[in-house]
Amino acid sequence: MLNKRTGRAAGKTALVFLISILAAFLVSVLFIAALGVNPFMAYGKLITGAFGRKSSIFEILAKATPLTIMGLGISIGVRGGFSNLGGDGQFYVGAITAVCVGLYLPQTLPAPVIWLLAILVSVISAGLYGGLAGWMRSRFNTNEVIITIMMNYVAQYVVSWLVSGPLQAPGGIPQTRAIATNYYIPKLMVGSRAHWGIVLALVLAVLVHYLFKRTTMGFKIEALGASPEAARYAGINSKLYTVLILAISGAFCGLAGMIEVYGTYYRVLDGITSSFGFTAMLIALLAQLNPFAVILGSVFISVLTVGANSMQIALNVPTSIVNVLQSLIIVFILIMPGIVAHIRGRRLQQLNRKRG
């Protein structure tokens, strides 16, 4: 009986989110039409641009890899009751510390050793950066949303200074030197940007699923997110877990930075994140914090991004329409449950009147 109820609830949730996505697409049609472009032709170009070539499919995988890892990290924070909007800053911290491993350790070290050390350094540094926001929340009762947003700017400007000064590569461009080619994460297909980091993203999704389904830590995180007062009454150290949750969330975002450096750009550039943090939060909400749905949400957003480039080239539709679409999806995700509840309430009232 419980499994049937859970399945029905999951089905209703999925239906609500499908309706939200459809509604967002329908509203975005108005914006495209206002540009003097046929919306159906525009979305046709988006779909063919995303799936019409093998290279486009691999590009979708390349974009989905860091988004999946960050989406998993953000979802852990939300499950614990905290909104980590500092994903971009933590990504920067993980990226800059990871690239230093590849640049300044002896180049005779084998690639797996460098990868492992880069992963450890990025996870620890970004975890500490995220945990700092958690410590301020637990110690001074600060708002983690504001703190993490402000910490984005701190990390961004520090990294911008580093790649324009102490760590800048010769040539005057604000970027670090590239890591050695033997430290590149291997590609899934020669000539594409997709790499084997996607496997790590899939493994992490399984681990996050296991964390919340099979471990005491996962239970305590969800208990704190569901009811902080009840969690404290049950003996859960809320201050410790506040720091721990945001540290784990930050560690995932920092790991995404390492993966992006070693798998895609091979260096740190000024502005490397492309606002991944906001997109990762969207994906976490879209997935209802389900780790496997985070993978699907990352692929969905990547399809929109890759397809939008083809849409712009073919019809001169600005790629910012994707940002509009993402924002609309969030709006409808937030308001759709209320609309559904209102409709159900009206139906119950009508039924009660008929029975009366």
Structural notes for this entry:
This protein is 77% helix and 0% strand. The protein has 356 residues and is mainly α. α4 (87-104) runs parallel beside α6, α7 (197-214) packs across α8 (216-226) and α7 (197-214) packs antiparallel against α12 (291-315). The radius of gyration is 22 Å and the shape is globular. It starts with a helix and ends with a helix. The mean pLDDT is 91.
Low-confidence stretches: none
Shape: globular
Task: Report, as a whole number of angstroms, the end-to-end distance.
Answer: 32 Å
Count of DSSP E strands?
A: 0
> What's the SSE pattern?
HHHHHHHHHHHHH
Please indicate the percent range of residues in DSSP E strands (runs of 2 or more): under 5%
What would a concise description of this structure say?
The chain has 356 residues and is mainly α. 77% of the residues lie in helices and 0% in strands.
Give the helices and strands, then pairings.
Blueprint: H1 2-34, H2 39-51, H3 54-79, H4 87-104, H5 111-140, H6 144-164, H7 197-214, H8 216-226, H9 228-233, H10 238-265, H11 276-286, H12 291-315, H13 321-355
Helix pairs in contact: 1-13, 2-12, 3-7, 3-10, 3-11, 3-12, 4-5, 4-6, 4-10, 4-11, 5-6, 5-10, 7-8, 7-12, 11-12, 11-13
Keywords:
356 residues; mainly alpha; 13 helices; 0% strand
